[in-house]
Specification:
606 residues, alpha+beta, Butyryl-CoA Dehydrogenase, subunit A, domain 3
Amino acid sequence: MPEYKAPLKDMDFLINDVLDFESHYKTFPEGEEATPDMVEAILSECAKFCENVLSPINQSGDKEGCVLKDGKVTTPTGFKEAYQQFVDGGWQSLSHPTEYGGQGLPLSLGVLKSDMIGTANWSWGMYPGLSMGAMNTIYMHGTEAQKQEYLIPLTHGTWTGTMCLTEPQCGTDLGQVKTKAEPNDDGSYDISGTKIFISAGDHDFTDNIIHVVLARMPGAPSGTRGISLFIVPKNNVNEDGTVGEFNNVSCGSLEEKMGIKASATAVLNFDGAKGYLLGAENKGLECMFTFMNTARVGTSLQGVGTAELAYQGSLPYAKDRLSMRALSGKKAPDKVADPIICHADVRRMLLTQKSIAEGGRAMIYYVAKLADTMMYGATEKEKEQADDMLGLLTPILKAFLTESGLEAANLGMQVYGGHGYIKEWGMEQIARDARISTLYEGTTGIQGLDLLGRKILLGGGGSFKKFTTEIMVFCKDFGLLSRNPHKKNMNQFIWPLFKHVAAWQQYTVRIALKAKNNRDVVGSASVDYLMYSGYITMAYFWAMMAQKAYEGLASGEGDADFYKAKIQTAEFYFERLLPRTKTLADTMMASTKSVMQMEEDHFAFL
């Protein structure tokens, strides 16, 4: 398994140069303490925890997995101890309100923390990650009493949390939820039903787990309109806040999975477990979207982390592995063969991984700033606009970055050749772990429908217009007609970006017009449209990074080699990856005929 090293230099470049977090943090009270020195200290300490504690148990955790015996789940060796170090270090409480036990630092700092944790050990990071979603949901929709009872221990990390949506008969279509919630005289509900695929659903980290559960009350409307949300603790909570007796929430089994084997994915049985309504009756799905959006942004990090870890494994191997001679002549004449990094195709794979990891990180950090504004904005309008932009970008990040991260993982195996297929090196684990990222929290197809169908066509496209306008303004400010001193260099990025965004706008209008006459246009175009949108969005951030790299070189300060590498990676992205949009444009604009014309009975003749 690659030895993880936190990319602190790249993170610093994004935080301080590209996205100017310092100025951003000065715009709201919660950011006042997040000075550059404070942020640097936090990230440095988190990097040590990830490098020295989490990374060493990543491969062993995969090999050992989780075990269910006599109704109890045991996590791999070292996982529980690592969690205790995490709690003792105050990491869970970093970005949560002080009135509920948090440290009151900006939400975006939690994203930066999760970037490192998820890359070092994704399976382990899912346990506190699921708690984060539960905490956000209770904070947004819970009563003050619920916050005092559940949110404080969740923030401290003494309890963990999950979300329980999926059932055997339904995944994405939650209108089919059958779990029942029978009211009791004391205002509680008896929750009965089975939930599957529950990440971190049971474990040995803490003595209580707070489940956020979708269920249906008696007489509730059918479909999604009749779903409510409930807090259901694994163990009841006594009046003094201590953990009480078992609450009839049991782990029926653990899923045997392709990857993330050290994360306990549980089948949970609720047998008349006592639960408490969270939010308004029959508004459970609306409340749960708080949790789901948190999880989707978190899953985007898995795509970036996958690319980063695969790259960190590929690069040293490519430098050390000797095979054949470079086509342009010997590069290591004193050796029996040249290092494979001398070969153009290996460089193509490495640069693809690098551009996905660094470009994806920039995208997520940008969204982290939006999340801050949504939470701490000065006005309701400002918060609403940030929320709308998050709504647009979340499906792009979730699907595009996980699909790209999976590509990077496969390239990591490819760099190793046959050794990449052998467990000893750890590259195949990265690919196995990455595969789930395109599936859970909404498949790539679901994200495509969300982006094109709901956010753009049904939503009026306001946030889309705002985002594309932002990119056009960037092109104007730094392109040929601007006063940018680096415009001569930047036009290799500005003009392609400008043309792609203009085409993006035009294709969006054309798809909308076609969809008026044929709704299947949305479904047949949506995934290609999302990937098309993802490549253009990432191009925007690579252009931003190139501009700042040119400024850094001109200043004569900082690491010149780092800046040169940024520019060269941006050039690779624009020349080798952005052109993929040409094929995507053709396929997303194609007729639905070839997709829809075949009779169901003709799909197979067996």
